[in-house]
Specification:
Blueprint (H helix, E strand, L loop, with lengths): L1 H9 L16 H11 L4 H7 L6 H14 L2 H8 L8 E2 L9 E2 H10 L2 E2 L2 E2 L5 H11 L2 H13 L1 H5 L4 E6 L2 E14 L2 E8 L4 E5 L3 E3 L1 H8 L11
Helix pairs in contact: 1-2, 2-4, 3-4
């Protein structure tokens, strides 16, 4: 808790080094080093990602997970946050404003973080991640529509397609939950019978609902075409 308070009170950027230095570690990275020295559990790191009151506590959790966790475990968690729309200022100048989801995307797609090397990801996992990332622009555009028409996903038994295990799978929505102002999660029962929690951005309408959704063309075009 003391470490979290230090991040909240003292950290103002997420770069590895202090401003105008390439050798002096930033306060955030000093805190991450101390955090990892305690050998936190995976669940503890996951809990940091949900600290909506402090973007830099969340950043510490994401970075600690990117540097220390098994790649497959990290990927399972990261993809849940890739549509996170909370504004974030990662750079030391404060000039760069992106969403947390875009920042997480960079942690997955790049081998370096502000010029510093990150652990390499296994090639099979990189291919799986790449299969998602090539669709992200379209998925984010469709997420805007999904949010504007959220009532369609709240309908009992709403038929959808869910991105699961690197492919689109038929299912039905069981419930919709607003985790925060920046994140909506749906409980979906897949055609295989299993139920998963997935971000709204990983869903698209299917059947008659899908035909209505895409009738106008434009940004809602079929991703498989």
């Amino acid at each position: 808790q003391e470490l979290i308070q230090e991040i909240i009170q003292s950290v103002d950027h997420a770069e590895p080094y202090t401003l105008d230095s390439s050798t002096e570690p930033s306060t955030l990275f000093c805190c991450i080093y101390r955090l990892l020295s305690f050998k936190p559990s995976f669940d503890k790191l996951c809990s940091l990602l949900l600290r909506w009151d402090s973007p830099y506590v969340r950043a510490a959790g994401f970075l600690a997970m990117r540097y220390s966790c098994k790649p497959c475990d990290m990927w399972t968690v990261f993809q849940e946050h890739i549509f996170d729309e909370q504004p974030f200022h990662p750079d030391a100048t404060g000039m760069q404003v992106i969403t947390f989801g875009e920042w997480v995307e960079g942690l997955l797609s790049e081998d370096k973080y502000f010029g510093t090397l990150m652990p390499r990801l296994p090639c099979p996992l990189k291919r799986e991640i790449g299969a998602l990332l090539v669709q992200l622009d379209q998925l984010r555009a469709d997420l805007v529509w999904n949010r504007e028409h959220i009532e369609r996903f709240r309908r009992a038994g709403a038929r959808v397609e869910a991105w699961h295990e690197a492919r689109w799978t038929q299912g039905e929505v069981l419930s919709v939950s607003e985790i925060s102002a920046h994140r909506i999660v749906c409980l979906v029962r897949l055609s295989s019978g299993i139920s998963i929690e997935t971000p709204l951005g990983f869903l698209r309408l299917s059947g008659a609902e899908r035909e209505t959704r895409y009738a106008g063309g434009g940004r809602g075009r079929n991703l498989d075409s």
